[in-house]
Amino acid sequence: MSLKSRLRISIVALVVGVVLALAALNLYSVATAKFSDLTERATATAQQVQTMLVTRLAQQTTGLPAPATLEETKAQWTAIVREDGQFAQLLQDTLASSRTVLEIQVAGESGRVLASSDPAAVGSPAKLLPNLANWTQEGQWRQLLDLFRNQQDYAVVMPLGVPEQAAPVFRIRVIYSSVLLRNTLAPLVQQLAIALSISFLAAVSLAFLASHIAFRPLARVRDAIDRIAQGESPLLSSSGREEPKEMAALEGKLQVLGQQFRGARQDAVELRGNIEQLLERLEEAVLLFDRDDRLIMAGRAVEGILGRGRWELMGRSLQDLFPPSTSLGAAGQLTCVVAVWMPKESRSATGTTN
Q1: CA–CA separation, 5 vs 86, rounded Å?
Q2: Could you say which of 302, 327, 328, 337 is the most buried, measured as most Cβ atoms within 10 Å of its Cβ?
Q3: Whether residue 149 sits in one domain with residue 52
Q4: Structure confidence by residue, pLDDT tens digits, 166-209
């Protein structure tokens, strides 16, 4: 992966990470406020229904004969709650004022629903539901996970009884739906998703723009090095704009490097020319090999020894020129980079033998 691609990915990851963190923090703050407000509203709704129930019982029992026993009193209250249509209408009106309450019930001692904002639920056993107060005491992240993963209803239960017995006579149940509560948070989640998408597109655009700006001087340095390799002058300040101090210093060093490279290249050319002239003048056959045992230079006398033109032999390996089947190749002595053969008259003068 190129450095430019790494820079782009880093910028995108950084921006998206920051936006995700801010979105999560915002969602956490809003959810905390929502859940705290939900508990307060649930308690207030249950207290409101309790007040309405006590008021309706007092109104309906006015003028009726007083019951002789507690059991008769409870039976009278149960009949009033079950048959009072105005109280059922009050429950429906209370339900209409809330966007998260699913149903409001009043259950009797038997556990059956006596009155409800949903007429179809009257007479049926009250369902056992998780307590909303216990759920709101869990961590906000756990609540959010449950909210978007499960479709669970929660209940706030407020007992209403008499001092003569410990068990309550009525239980006021305010049932909250996680689906309705999730719908109240859905607009915020959608806004955060839109913000994340916009931030991602902006991060990609920023990454490409920043990488282009950051690597533009490097591209000019690359072009300057290519010019140096071709023996030309590295013109970094061709745009006519004032360059930063770093680029100006780099330009000066590349200029010096270019001059040194051109000087070294000229010296190498002159040295090669001198060697070629020397090989032309020598009567001995001299062969120069590189580190890969390939012929790079040879004197004129080599043509008479090998029977081929020396330019035809350039680039040939040592094994090609002197196969193992020959006496020289079988001797295994031609592993050096310079091989010299002396003419017969020179060997006789110096005492050298084959």
Answers
A1: 71
A2: 302
A3: yes
A4: 888 899 998 887 777 777 777 777 777 787 788 778 888 887 78
CA within 13 Å, CB half, 156 = 23
Reported pTM: 0.52
- Assess if residue 172 is contained within a domain: yes
Asked whether residue 157 is domain-assigned, the answer is: yes
Range(s) of the domain holding residue 240: 231-273
Residue among 184, 162, 163, 161 at smallest CA distance from 171 = 161
Q: What is the rounded CA–CA span in Å between residue 354 and residue 340?
A: 12
CA distance 224 to 255: 9
Between strands 170-177 and 338-341, the pairing is unpaired
Q: Are 294 and 350 in contact (CB under 8 A)?
A: no
Q: Cα–Cα distance between 88 and 85 in angstroms, integer?
A: 5
By C-alpha distance, which of 316, 313, 277, 284 is closest to 301?
284
The predicted-structure confidence for 3-35, as pLDDT tens digits, reads as follows: 777 777 887 888 878 888 887 787 777 777 777
Domain boundary among the residues 249, 273, 297 is at 273
Note whether residue 206 is domain-resident: no
For residues 267 and 315, membership in a common domain is answered with: no
Tokens of 118: 């949903």
Question: Residue 159 and residue 121: Cα distance in Å, rounded?
Answer: 19
Same domain, 253 and 340: no
Q: How far apart are CA 333 and CA 351, in angstroms?
A: 20
297 by DSSP, 3-state: which? strand
Under a CB-based contact definition with an 8 Å cutoff, are residues 267 and 282 in contact? no
Q: Write phi, then psi, for 166 (nearest 5 degrees).
A: -75, -35
